[in-house]
Amino acid sequence: MSPRRVDPQLAAALLEAAARLLAEGGTAALTTRRLAAEVGASTTVVYTYYGGMDNLVRAMVHEGFARLHRRMATVRATNDAVADIMSLGWAYRANALDHPQLYLVMFGSSALGGFALGDGDRQHGRYTLEPLVDAVTRATEQRRFRPSDPLLVGQTMWIALHGLVTLELGGYLVDPYDAELCFESQLRSLTVGAGDDHDTTLISLARARRRRPRRTTTS
Hints:
The protein is an all-alpha fold. It contains eleven helices and no strands.
């Protein structure tokens, strides 16, 4: 008997199905049986392509960061680096709101089948900070920010926005200080804290607001 032919698209289809199940039913929905049904295969398909659920979840973490990187890469550099930083912040938030379950898995806030992120998994996504660090560098060169370590400034901004977005996903930001108001306030505070002039920050915020990304419905 000839060996069964491997479908080169099935590994990608499993990742898409896993992301879709997460979006629709949360972590409880992600089982080998449900995944197999989604892609029209037997329950062994997860083991055939990933060696088990742990490796599938790890691949999902990597895919989540790849999606984040693609979203951040849509923010083009302009001659207003502070507006670019704010636009990157909005892109980060939009990605999380479009893929909330995947976002929680990426950062270890949601466990799947006993899988826990290791140090390598946590470090994997650091490349997504590169557009932000580049924008901070340009803001410093444009004398909008005081001289400092761009990586440290970028990471501090990411920590603050990540916390805010996580609270939003958890439903903790409500009127009168809802997510929209808190997010813009945080953007202003972070850029002024890095050395920018308050009035100039408001001009950059207006520019960034016009560039806000549209939400998608993709899981």
